Amino acid sequence: MGYLGSEYMSSITAAVVRLVLVLAMCASAQADDFPLACFYSAADSEEGLANHPQCARRDGDTVRLAPAHFQRLDFDDDGLTSVAIDGGMYYINRQGASLHVLTFDNGADYFEEGLTRAWVNGKVGYYDKAFNQVIAPVYDWGTPLRDGRAEVCIGCQRGPADGDGHWAMQGGKWGVIDRSGTVVEPLR
């Protein structure tokens, strides 16, 4: 190769080493930026539900997925998917917005009569599939809608788990609201 060839190869080698270092720093920074593990079923995999480390981060009151993980999500016909993140269940939409919902049957709370129950600042509210608030999050607990009504409570607490790990809410004042959030049976 001669002198120029050797010098050329040396500069290419140095450039490759710098590129590898930059990519490693970027990968490390991205991993640090998304420290939370996720549990979801990837659209591009047959493995089913799986743990995905360094998948998400908290961003104020919401969570954000790392772009590489977001691209792997399997969205339903409503443009939603569910992901377990840091011990909580979330619906994620195609725009990347998230809604922290109650866990039900080891997954995200179902949409009953078009609404799901969500956690906001430790309170339960009801949201539609576009993540619009329909009933304000003012209750300590609420049941899914049935025939346009839901039981709600203020001051109730989670009771002890039974042998199967199921638990019930205890105490507090209970009442019934309709789909618009109007109290139809006062809390007592």
Structure notes:
The protein is α+β, with helices and mostly antiparallel strands. It folds into 2 domains: 34-109, no CATH class; 123-188, no CATH class. 19% of the residues lie in helices and 42% in strands. The protein has 2 helices and 17 strands. A 6-stranded antiparallel β-sheet has the order 3-2-1-4-5-6. Strands 12-13-16-17 form a 4-stranded antiparallel β-sheet, with no helix packed on it. It is globular. Mean pLDDT is 87; it is low at 12-29.
Total number of domains: 2
Main β-sheet description: 6 strands, antiparallel
Structural class: alpha+beta
**Order of strands side by side in the largest beta sheet?**
3-2-1-4-5-6
How far apart lie the N and C ends? Answer: 90 Å
* Annotation, overall tally of beta strands: 17
**Backbone CA Rg:** 24 Å
Q: Spans of 5+ residues with little confidence (pLDDT < 50)?
A: 12-29
Helix count, DSSP H or I runs of 4 or more residues: 2
Helix content: 10-25%
- Mean model confidence by pLDDT: 87
SS strand fraction: 35-45%
> H/E series, N to C?
HEEEHEEEEEEEEEEEEEE
Q: What overall geometry do the principal axes of the alpha carbons give?
A: globular
Organism: Pseudomonas turukhanskensis
Keywords: Signal
Protein name: WG repeat-containing protein
InterPro entries: WG_beta_rep
Topology record:
Layout: H1 2-33, E1 36-41, E2 49-59, E3 62-65, H2 67-70, E4 80-85, E5 88-93, E6 98-101, E7 103-104, E8 107-108, E9 116-120, E10 123-127, E11 133-139, E12 141-142, E13 149-154, E14 157-158, E15 169-170, E16 173-178, E17 183-185
Antiparallel strand pairs: 1-2, 1-4, 2-3, 4-5, 5-6, 7-8, 9-10, 10-11, 12-13, 13-16, 14-15, 16-17
